[in-house]
Amino acid sequence: MIEVCTVWTPRPNHPAWRDDYVDLIAAQRFSALQTGHAHKVVTDAPMAGFDCMITKLPAELMQAMIAGVVHRLQQPVEDHICFVDVDCLILRHLGNVFEGAVYDVGLTYRSNEVSPINNGVMYVRKTGVARALMFFREALRICGTHWGADQEAISQAAAPVPQEELIGERSGAKVQFLSSKRYGAVPKAHLTRHDSWVVHFKGATKDWMLDYARTFQGYAPKEVA
Fold first, then answer.
1. Are the beta carbons of 126 and 64 closer than 8 angstroms?
2. Which CATH number fits domain 3-224: 3.40.50.300, 3.20.20.70, 3.65.10.10, 3.90.550.10?
3. pLDDT block averages, 10 residues each, the chain of length 225
C-alpha cells in the first residue's frame, strides 16, 4: 500500500500560520484512504485521530519541513511514499506513478527562476530510499530560514532543473522531473475538477480545498474524526 506522508510542523507564531491546518490534513487523510493509500503524519506535535510518527524537528519552520522528510526516510520503508504538503488532496491511486519507474526521487517542476521545483508533492520509490536520503540531507544542509527556503534548497539540490520530463543524477539520487500539471496540479479556479494524480491548494487557493473535498470526494469531517 503506497504511503501518503505529510510533515506537520505547527508553528502558531509564524506569520503564515492558519488555524484550519488540521482541518486540511483531515481532508487529506480522507482523500488518501478513499483512493486506497495509507496516510502518515511526521510531526513534533501529536495529533489525535491520525497515524503519527513523532520526532524532534528544528524550531525553524523551513528546515523542519525537510527534516521531517529525512526522519521518515530514516525509518523502515515498506512501500513507495508520496510526500505532500498539508494542502494537498489525493485524486487517484498512485500505483501508476511508480509502476515501471527507475527513479529514486520524483519532483515536480514549474516555471520559476528561484524555486523551479514545487516541493508540495514529492515521490520516493521504496528501492531508492538510501539515495533519496542523500538528496534530502543535502537539501537540509543548505536550507535557509526565510519563507520559501525549503523549496529553494530542494531546487538547488536538484539543479539544473529542466522544464520537461527528464531523469538525471542530482545530489546522490536519480531524480525524475515530473510535470506539475500531471503530478501535482495547482487549481486555477474554485471547484474545477482536476485529472492529475494530486491537487495542491497553494497559497490563497487553500480556501478552496475543503469545498473540493466535499464536492468531488464526498468528504465529511465526522468520517475521519
1. no
2. 3.90.550.10
3. 96 92 97 98 94 97 98 97 98 94 96 95 98 98 96 98 96 97 95 95 96 96 55
Alpha-helical runs (H) found in the chain:
21-34, 61-74, 95-98, 129-142, 149-157, 180-183, 209-217
Amino acid at 25: I
CA distance 98 to 101: 5
* Residues 5/62, Cβ–Cβ less than 8 Å: no
In sequence order, what are the residues at sequence separation of 6 or more whose Cβ sits closer than 8 angstroms to the Cβ of residue 4? Answer: 28, 32, 37, 38, 39, 40, 81, 82, 84, 90, 94
Instruction: List the one residue out of 74, 76, 155 whose CA is nearest residue 122.
Output: 155
Kindly report whether the global pTM for this prediction surpasses the value 0.85.
Answer: yes
Are β-strands 105-109 and 173-179 bridged in parallel, bridged antiparallel, or unpaired?
Answer: parallel
Strand 167-170 and strand 52-54: the pairing is unpaired
- Whole-angstrom distance, CA of residue 85 vs CA of residue 65: 9
Would you state the cell numbers that stand for residue 220, as one nine-digit string?
465529511
Domains of the chain, by residue range, sit at 3-224
